[in-house]
């Protein structure tokens, strides 16, 4: 059963972009997920919170095609999906910004944006990388998101932590993705860089992306999200509209001081 959100009004009638229904997954004797049901509304930022080991990353990896649930199902835009790999999820429009960002330090920003999705130009049977087209498109992607990077031909090695995060978000937001999943996007950043990355995340929502955010930072969850789901010991123990809850209530759900 999906936990009802208290003030599910007319907006709740809209089809969720993602619905997890009774998703369970064990690793050997470890039951990482037990019948997890939750929904992500389209065009919103949903936060997923919980203590270490609660199952957040495992759930996100089921949505992004890294793991396949043992039971239960995941619906994307109303239809059940069975991703066999992250590429399957990406092809469907689900992008993940990993904690390690998965950027190549010695490549330029534009090369990182097009990693594994290079544009090619064909002359008869021969294909060439279309550097010019990729650089042009990279500039458009960067300026569309107002990403604060020096130039698209800068090497990633020269960028700050916040700028790297911005490049990774830009890559995830490009290529017509619909859901962008972020795992602790500001964990390694200072206050100013965190604020810039949070602006970017708001920008993604303003552009119509749906965002799923794992964060241990309650203040950030309260600032950024529209909805919060709480996990504890592999279970989803509740969901709240962010505007109608408090950090204290979320903490009590996480710790089990209050069970809804
Ligand atoms: N590949 C794996 N093999 C075995 N056990 C795993 C694997 N991945 C996760 N687990 C276990 O599943 C449980 C849930 O882990 P998960 O990483 O999903 O939690 P989390 O909420 O993301 O924690 P954190 O906030 O620390 O990242 C833990 O007990 C973890 O040890």
UniProtKB/TrEMBL annotation:
Pfam families listed in its UniProt record: ABC_tran (PF00005)
Protein name per Swiss-Prot or TrEMBL: Sugar ABC transporter ATP-binding protein
Source species taxonomy: Bacteria, Bacillati, Actinomycetota, Actinomycetes, Kitasatosporales
PROSITE patterns: ABC_TRANSPORTER_1, ABC_TRANSPORTER_2
SUPFAM superfamilies: P-loop containing nucleoside triphosphate hydrolases (SSF52540)
SMART domains named among the record's database cross-references: AAA
GO molecular function, one term: ATP hydrolysis activity
Keywords: ATP-binding, Nucleotide-binding
InterPro entries for this protein: AAA+_ATPase, ABC_carbohydrate_import_ATPase, ABC_transporter-like_ATP-bd, ABC_transporter-like_CS, P-loop_NTPase
Keyword ATP-binding: yes
């Amino acid at each position: 059963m999906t936990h009802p959100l208290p003030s599910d009004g007319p907006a709740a009638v809209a089809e969720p972009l993602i619905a997890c229904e009774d998703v369970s997954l064990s690793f050997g004797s470890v039951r990482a997920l037990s019948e997890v049901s939750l929904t992500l509304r389209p065009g919103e930022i949903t936060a997923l919170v919980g203590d270490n080991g609660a199952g957040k990353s495992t759930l996100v990896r089921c949505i992004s095609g890294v793991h396949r649930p043992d039971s239960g199902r995941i619906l994307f835009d109303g239809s059940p999906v069975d991703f066999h790999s992250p590429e399957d999820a990406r092809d469907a429009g689900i992008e993940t910004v990993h904690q390690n960002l998965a950027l190549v330090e010695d490549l330029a920003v534009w090369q990182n944006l097009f990693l594994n999705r290079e544009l090619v130009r064909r002359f008869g049977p021969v294909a060439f990388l279309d550097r010019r087209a990729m650089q042009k498109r990279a500039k458009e992607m960067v300026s569309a998101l107002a990403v604060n990077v020096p130039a698209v031909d800068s090497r990633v090695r020269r960028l700050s932590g916040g700028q790297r995060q911005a490049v990774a978000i830009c890559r995830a937001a490009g290529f017509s993705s619909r859901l962008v999943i972020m795992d602790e996007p500001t964990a390694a950043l200072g206050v100013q860089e965190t604020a810039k990355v949070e602006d970017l995340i708001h920008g993604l929502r303003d552009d119509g992306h749906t965002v799923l955010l794992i964060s241990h930072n309650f203040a950030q969850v309260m600032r950024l999200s529209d909805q919060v789901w709480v996990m504890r010991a592999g279970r989803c123990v509740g969901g709240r509209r962010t505007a109608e809850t408090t950090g204290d209530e979320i903490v009590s759900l996480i710790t089990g001081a209050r069970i809804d």
